[in-house]
Design goal:
The chain is mainly β. It has one helix and 24 strands. Strands 3, 4, 5, 6, 7, 8, 9, 10, 11, 12, 13, 14, 15 and 16 form a 14-stranded antiparallel sheet that branches. The longest helix has 7 residues.
């Protein structure tokens, strides 16, 4: 079976063949759940402002490793002072360094370090531009290699499936030439998209929040809270009525799948009394602001 996938940023396509028996393949990583980063092919760049030095940006792969043997591999192509981590994780809770189960940390010096769930394993290995680092699963054991040479074996037993996971701290920092090898399958949910963009609307709107992933369940809130699986469900083909000022947030879950990113749209309706007319005070509120999407 030949599968084509395009990352959530709309760039980069990976074509791979997976047989019904579970063939081993090597594929350029296609990114999803992007937060604070821009994807270009199988590369990531932190895109936030230059005063943002938090562990708050990253993405995961659309495909996951489901075999006892495989690896993620990436190459150092930029300034070694750029702080970032790339590795393998079971799930995607957030973009912090603590969320990466098995990672290689670069930055601060000309060394690479092993970080597992936020814990520094006390391993240092020299790093220069052009080096290729690999986090591997070898007969179910996690290992770390530089240019093919083993430098650390983990004592932590991994839980499958494992996605490529990243966290970037330095603005402009990158993770480049990322590939995933092994028996792979898609366990992510396609991004949610608002049919009505955030903005100012003089009349009520009906906002749909579709995903291309069949069988996903979409939960949403209208008070600005982060959606959970206990919040309201938006059934397939249904919409959310936007007839007053509100913040709409949504997230999708699916059996055996990693939940989608939380998406958000802020809506303003200058028709405060919802009578379908803009009264004098409503015009005053609106001022010179224009209708429609921001």
């Amino acid at each position: 079976v030949t599968i084509g996938a395009t990352n959530a940023g709309g760039t980069g396509t990976a074509l791979l063949s997976i047989s019904a028996s579970g063939a081993v393949v090597t594929a350029d990583v296609v990114w999803t759940n992007l937060v604070g980063v821009v994807a270009t092919g199988n590369n990531l760049t932190k895109s936030t402002s230059w005063d943002d030095w938090d562990w708050d940006a990253g993405a995961i792969s659309t495909l996951a490793l489901v075999s006892q043997d495989g690896y993620v591999e990436f190459q150092v192509t930029d300034d070694l002072e750029m702080i970032r981590i790339c590795g393998l994780s079971h799930g995607d809770t957030d973009q912090t360094i603590d969320d990466i189960d098995f990672g290689i940390y670069l930055g601060d010096s000309n060394d690479a370090q092993v970080i597992e769930s936020g814990e520094n394993r006390g391993v240092l290995v020299s790093a220069v531009k052009g080096d290729v680092f690999r986090v591997s699963l070898e007969a179910g054991v996690v290992t770390y290699r530089k240019n093919g040479i083993l430098f650390y074996t983990s004592l932590v037993t991994p839980t499958l499936p494992l996605v490529v996971d990243t966290s970037l701290r330095s603005p402009g920092g990158t993770v480049n030439n990322v590939v995933l090898h092994g028996v792979l399958m898609n366990i992510t949910i396609a991004p949610l998209v608002f049919s009505v963009p955030a903005g100012i609307y003089a009349t009520p709107q009906n906002a749909a929040i579709p995903t291309a992933t069949a069988g996903a369940t979409i939960h949403y809130t209208t008070n600005g809270d982060e959606p959970t699986e206990s919040d309201a469900v938006l059934a397939a083909g249904s919409t959310v009525l936007v007839d007053h000022e509100l913040t709409l947030k949504a997230r999708a879950w699916g059996t055996g799948l990693i939940p989608s990113n939380v998406v958000q749209a802020d809506y303003t309706n200058p028709d405060g009394d919802n009578d379908g007319l803009l009264d004098a005070w409503e015009y005053q509120y609106l001022g010179t602001r224009s209708y429609g999407p921001n």
